[in-house]
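Deviations from the work plan: none for this task. Representative record:
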Amino acid sequence: MALLPILEFPDPRLRTRAEPVQQFDAALKRLIADMLQTMYAAPGIGLAATQVNVHRRLLVMDVSAEKHQPQVYINPEIVARDGLEVSEEGCLSVPNVFEQVERAARVQVRAQDQDGEPFERELEGLAAVCLQHEIDHLAGKLFVDYLSGLKRERIRRKLEKERRERVSGAAKPAAHASARVI
Ligand code: NI
């Protein structure tokens, strides 16, 4: 297994629309294992292939407190949504930024597992938020897109400043609320 580098906003590759997965082979299983390892190490509770510069419709997540319930969704589509809920989100591709985002409270998702078997599942709470956030990634969309242009620009400048400081070795480790980093 290997840790994969995670693209960070405003990297234009994060805007790529992912293509459907067609081959359910050993390479796909290796990618899934690498993505799970990368997500747990980050640490985060969800990761879309787009974020590791693989533009295929695949995401992994684990919203369990003990981090022992990995979920894999291949070619996921939301087929029903219900209710609205606002909650705080962060993102591994937008480090140390947390903002309120409104999403459907409950979703029904249709997807395939790593062997290509189709399944459907109903999600609510954090799992529903996480899945919607990751499916957005596959469409080239980021949670900062739900904010005002002014706020997004402020976030972009803050991240670029932090990256410069990281390069010059002056960066302080930031507080990390990893429970909401998706
Ligand atoms: Ni994210």
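The two ends are 21 Å apart (CA to CA).
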